[in-house]
Amino acid sequence: MTKIFKSSFSQVLVELNRLDFKCWIFQRGMEFEAQEKWWEDTGSRLTKHEGLDFCCYKDRNGQLVNLAEKTIVPVMYDGMIVKIFTDLLGASVLVKHDLQDKGRNLCSIYAHTFPVAPLQTGSTVKEGEPIARICATGKKSILPHLHLSVIWALESAIVGLDWENIHKEKRATLCNPLDFLWY
Question: What predicted TM-score, i.e. pTM, was given to this entire model?
Answer without folding.
Answer: 0.95
